[in-house]
Write a structure and sequence with these properties.
The complex is a heterodimer of chains A (422) and B (308).
Chain A: H1 2-20, E1 33-39, H2 44-60, E2 64-70, H3 73-85, E3 91-95, H4 101-105, H5 113-117, H6 119-124, H7 126-129, E4 133-134, E5 137-138, E6 141-145, E7 148-153, H8 154-160, H9 168-180, E8 184-186, H10 194-208, H11 210-217, H12 226-241, H13 257-261, E9 265-271, H14 274-280, E10 288-291, E11 303-305, E12 308-312, H15 320-331, H16 333-339, H17 360-371, E13 376-378, H18 381-384, H19 387-402, H20 407-421
Helix pairs in contact in A: 10-11, 10-12, 10-19, 19-20
Chain B: H1 17-20, H2 22-52, E1 55-56, E2 64-65, H3 69-76, H4 78-94, H5 97-108, H6 115-127, H7 130-141, H8 147-154, H9 169-194, H10 198-206, H11 211-222, H12 224-239, H13 243-248, H14 260-268, H15 276-307
Antiparallel strand pairs in B: 1-2
Helix pairs in contact in B: 2-15, 4-9, 4-12, 5-9, 6-9, 7-9, 9-12, 12-15, 14-15
Classes of the chains: A alpha/beta (422), B mainly alpha (308).
């Protein structure tokens, strides 16, 4: 059995060499030469994970000279434009979906459809293929993703006798109870705008469905459409109730955390990366729990946000074969299990054969995304919408949350931006 | 071994070109490196910006010539209008630093024990980074734990969210900017006051001038150079205000605290930006506004020099 496997790998390797002159799978042969990797994982925990992962790859290929550069996450977003054109690394991190578009259409990312055609990747990474596809080609591989949803104070829910809501009516009824107890329902910090984008994503996907949301993202529907107004009407119900904390426009998302930690607000619509922050702030397992954003329009298939972080090969890279071997290693089942476990990234592995770490939130997220998100999986507002549209729109969303009466003005403005951008 | 040296039979009758024009050339030789760098890093980019503002370019692909379309869009862009007005507010209210600086300088221009310490304490805000000033004021204004609301609470006034209110936010940031700028003007006036002629004050006093009349007719005219410099640094400071806005509000809420320089940055260089042509068009407008002031400053300096 074992030797048969080896033989088939060898056969595969030979065909690969014959076909494209590419070196085979990392397990088979030792790589040599150089590999230059640029990372945006500058936060301490992800940085350590990545460095450890690269060290393990280097161990497998002792002759390979790997050079890793970690760039500050925010600075990376502007620097990538320079280094992709001028001094390209062999591997670079980035984000899935529309955020790739500028680099794909400028011809700066390498087409890696060949990797996706390999059986191992084709079967195990099928769920994220859509997010990596532009023009029917794949432009990179994912290495991690995480769910979004409502993180809430379980102890306060118990104290008030509330259950996790599954419908919009329950959600609002819960919120009324919370408000009557002198707390706010949701904390949010919209100073840097994107948090409001998360709310819009969910409200729109629940009101009009995933397909409509994507049509809006692609610019096929006007912002002044009645269906968009319906989304805002649902949002307005919460705003008029006073569900959100006051002065959220002055806080970053981290500055909004203490409201929930102190119990002045009970829930936070956020990505799973917030769990580490909550735990660090002292919330115990009994105090923190998670539920899926409830259904609004009955009968509509639920869809979720699950932003995916990715690796790409720049078109100007010099060691593309080594880079491909590295990408194979990154998405391999064992590596995915390891880098996404609770001690490392604490997120979800992209490989279907990997196992999810035994963490309350990761398990709930994994189950939600694999079985309760039939509508589809979105990336996130500012990754699905083109950058310029997203920037204007998120500003409008923040304005709406503060001055809901300005809605008509905001929608007209966004509509004129839409007509210019697409 | 011996090399016959032929004596130079025809010594040059004329000096070399350089020797002949030494007086005229040397200054230019010394200036060349400066001019070269100034041209490469300042003059040429100005014209490049003018040129770029006629294109639509995302910084990656091909630049597409669009003529005046960027400027036409500016005319109808409400965010641009807001930024322009905020620039006007900055210009008007930032100038408060000059009278405030003068007042503190007059107040500190006395000899009591420890005056040097007081002077340095007043000068302190100018020494710390603008980023720190921005952070300190952002905390001061913070609606949940800020000192401002606590203080307002003592006198029974309701909590306000200065940086979250589109009508107040720019004034709030200008107030933060005035803190270091006042210190800057103060130090300029303090040095100016050292040069005030005591005999003229004596003469004024004999003629019965005191208090405000003394200040207005005797002191201020002698402080004219200091006032001029204060004016220049404050106007330029107001037009290039950027760091405070970036730190305190990031242009928000919903873009109501942006100024032209920040808007240009957002459009051309920020995470969601990369409309290089549009950003360049904003930069050109900002440049033209600055040019008005710079031309005025240069003109008055030129007149000054000719006068002497």
């Amino acid at each position: 059995m074992h030797s048969m496997l080896k033989a088939s790998i060898a056969a595969l390797a030979t065909t690969a060499v014959l076909a494209g002159g590419a070196l085979a799978d990392g397990h088979g042969e030792k790589l040599s030469g150089d590999l230059k990797i640029f990372l945006d994982t500058s936060n301490p925990a992800p940085r350590a994970t990545m460095e450890d992962m690269i060290a393990r790859f280097a161990e497998m290929h002792p002759d390979l000279n790997i050079e890793t550069t970690v760039i500050d996450r925010e600075a990376y977003k502007t620097q990538i434009r320079n280094f992709l054109t001028a001094n390209a690394p062999d591997v670079a991190t980035w984000y899935a979906a529309n955020r790739m578009t500028p680099y794909v259409s400028a011809g700066l990312f390498e087409d890696v459809s060949d990797l996706w055609a390999e059986e191992d990747i084709a079967t195990n990474l099928a769920s994220t293929k859509g997010a990596m596809t532009i023009d029917d080609k794949q432009w990179g591989v994912p290495y991690t993703y995480y769910q979004w949803g409502i993180y809430y104070r379980e102890d306060i829910f118990n104290e008030l006798g509330l259950e996790e809501p599954t419908t919009w009516e329950q959600e609002k009824a819960n919120c009324q109870v919370i408000l009557d107890s002198g707390r706010k329902c949701y904390t949010i910090g919209s100073k840097f705008l994107w948090t409001a984008g998360g709310w819009f994503d969910y409200l729109n996907m629940r009101t009009n469905g995933f397909d409509f949301h994507m049509e809006l993202a692609r610019g096929e529907v006007p912002w002044t459409d009645d269906r968009v107004r319906a989304t805002f009407a649902n949002w307005r119900e919460l705003i008029d109730m006073g569900a959100f904390i006051d002065n959220h426009q002055s806080y970053s998302w981290q500055e909004a955390l203490p409201f929930m930690v102190r119990g002045e607000a009970t829930a936070y619509l956020m990505g799973n990366f917030s769990v580490a922050q909550f735990r660090e702030a002292g919330l115990t397992e009994d105090q923190l729990d998670f539920y899926q954003f409830p259904a609004i329009t009955e009968g509509l298939e639920l869809a979720e946000n699950a932003p995916t972080d990715t690796f790409h090969i720049p078109a100007n890279a010099e060691n593309k074969d080594n880079a491909r071997a590295f990408l194979r290693f990154v998405v391999s089942a064992d590596n995915q299990t390891l880098i996404n476990n609770g001690e490392n990234l604490g997120q979800l592995p992209v490989n279907a054969s990997s196992s999810v770490d035994n963490d309350e939130f990761l398990n709930q997220g994994f189950e939600m995304l694999s079985s309760n998100s039939p509508g589809g999986v979105a990336q996130f507002f500012d990754r699905d919408f083109p950058a310029e549209m997203a920037a204007e729109a998120m500003q409008g969303l923040q304005e709406f949350m503060v001055f809901p009466d300005n809605l008509d003005d905001i929608l007209n403005r966004l509509e004129s931006v839409r007509q210019r951008v697409y | 071994m011996t090399v016959a040296t032929v004596p130079d039979m025809n010594p040059p009758r004329r000096k070399s070109f350089y020797k002949r024009n030494e007086i005229a050339l040397t200054p230019w030789l010394f200036l060349t490196p400066g001019i070269l760098f100034f041209a490469v890093y300042v003059i040429i980019p100005i014209f490049q910006s003018f040129n770029l503002s006629l294109y639509a370019w995302d910084g990656l692909g091909e630049a597409r010539y669009v003529g005046m379309a960027n400027y036409q869009e500016l005319m109808t862009d409400r965010a641009f209008e807001v930024s322009l007005w905020n620039n006007v507010k900055w210009l008007a209210f930032y100038l408060l630093a000059i009278p405030a600086g003068l007042f503190i300088a007059l107040f500190l221009n006395q000899t009591v024990v420890g005056i040097r310490l007081y002077k340095s304490l007043f000068f302190f805000p100018f020494v710390i980074s603008q980023v720190v000033v921005g952070l300190v004021f952002a905390w001061f204004y913070n609606p949940s734990f800020g000192l401002l609301n606590t203080a307002l609470g003592w006198i029974g006034l309701g909590p306000i969210n200065v940086l979250g209110d589109p009508t107040m936010v720019t004034y709030g940031i200008i107030a933060a900017g005035l803190w270091p700028q006042t210190a800057y003007c103060m130090i300029l006036y303090l040095t100016g006051l050292n040069a005030v002629d005591p005999e003229q004050i004596e003469a004024g006093r004999l003629d019965g001038a005191k208090g405000f009349r003394m200040l207005w007719h005797i002191i201020l005219p002698q402080l004219k150079p200091a006032t001029f410099i204060c004016f220049v640094v404050t106007i330029i400071g107001a037009l290039r205000s950027f760091d405070l806005i970036s730190i305190m509000t990031n242009g928000g809420p919903f873009g109501s605290s942006r100024v032209l320089s920040f808007y240009m940055f957002e459009k051309a260089l920020s995470e969601y930006g990369f409309r290089m042509g549009y950003g360049a068009a904003i930069a050109v407008v900002l440049f033209l506004i600055m040019l008005v002031f710079i031309a005025y400053f240069l003109w008055s300096m030129f007149r000054e020099e000719r006068g002497h």
